[in-house]
Amino acid sequence: GPLNLAYVIYTSGSTGSPKGVGVAHGGLSNLIAAQLKLFRLDDARRVIQCSRPNFDAFMWECGMTLCSGAALHLLAPQSAGVDLADALIAGQVTTMTVLPSVLSLLRPEDFPHLETVIVAGEICPPSLAERWSGQVEFVNAYGPTEDTVCATCGVVGPLAGQRIPIGRPIANTQVYVLDGELGLAPIGVAGELYI
Question: pTM for the whole thing?
Answer without folding.
Answer: 0.90
